Design the sequence.
């Protein structure tokens, strides 16, 4: 068995698949796991944990309910199982401390502590908004339509590229110097959504606008589009963190870990536009 055999949870997601690809390119054994992945793994079904962990030495953890009231118990049970089966190290995707209401940061820290208390060597990656949200996730249809109608006010965020996240994760999974570290991963500069619209307009050659809306209008529109109320309200809270200025900061952690500057949104937008992801024929992607 190779020195490292890495379990990737959320392996079909924006970061998970990138982490898996990078590890495999290095010749490491990777187990791609998830609800719809080659190896079935479901955080809500503990019976799927042991088979996924068999022979694993390291794990990349994307736990969607981190910070929820039941998160501590789930992560502790998983970590105990992992340590029993020989897992030594984990990288967990987590939240920054925004001081806002969208995430209970004390609960986030308590959940992370369950992993280390169980005996896992841990690196924590505190992620900000992904650039890829505009091309691979919930903001993609708005870019195609040409208008971002969001309750983010004039707040700013340092959008981080998922490729940078993946490279930092791989460094943490393969270099023991990162054990015990907590990194906040951002892009290299702050952008408002007006700035984002201008960047996307330049990259696509189309006019893309940003229209600030109220939380109430945003939630009502989301529900009218078939989005569950809980998800719509959660999204509104995340936009609220931007609007409040809670995310108006830039970290240098990407550059410090990778010894190269974090990828800029301009470069991301140019590459995404060149891929055709925002053409009308890709509206449903």
Sequence:
């Amino acid at each position: 068995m190779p020195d490292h055999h890495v379990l990737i949870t959320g392996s079909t997601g924006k970061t998970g698949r990138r982490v898996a690809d990078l590890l495999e390119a290095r010749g490491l054994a990777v187990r791609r796991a998830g609800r719809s992945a080659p190896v079935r793994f479901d955080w809500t079904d503990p019976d799927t944990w042991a088979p996924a962990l068999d022979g694993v030495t390291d794990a990349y953890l994307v736990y969607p309910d981190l910070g929820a009231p039941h998160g501590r118990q789930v992560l502790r049970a998983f970590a105990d199982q992992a340590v029993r089966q020989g897992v030594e190290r984990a990288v967990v995707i987590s939240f920054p401390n925004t001081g806002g209401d969208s995430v209970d940061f004390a609960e986030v820290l308590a959940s992370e502590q369950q992993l280390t208390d169980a005996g896992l060597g841990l690196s924590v990656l505190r992620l900000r908004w992904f650039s890829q949200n505009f091309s691979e996730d919930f903001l993609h249809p708005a870019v195609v339509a040409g208008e971002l109608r969001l309750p983010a006010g004039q707040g700013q965020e340092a959008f981080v590229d998922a490729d940078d996240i993946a490279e930092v994760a791989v460094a943490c999974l393969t270099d023991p110097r990162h054990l015990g570290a907590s990194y906040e991963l951002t892009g290299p500069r702050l952008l408002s959504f007006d700035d984002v619209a201008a960047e996307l307009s330049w990259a696509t050659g189309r006019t893309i606008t940003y229209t600030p809306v109220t939380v109430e209008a945003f939630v009502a529109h989301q529900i009218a589009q078939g989005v569950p109320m809980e998800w719509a309200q959660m999204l509104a809270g995340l936009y609220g963190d931007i609007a409040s200025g809670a995310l108006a900061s830039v970290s240098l952690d990407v550059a410090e870990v990778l010894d190269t500057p974090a990828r800029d949104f301009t470069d991301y937008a140019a590459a995404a536009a060149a891929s055709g992801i925002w053409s009308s024929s890709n509206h449903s992607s």
Observations:
- The mean pLDDT is 94.
- Residues 203 and 271 are 8 Å apart (CA to CA).
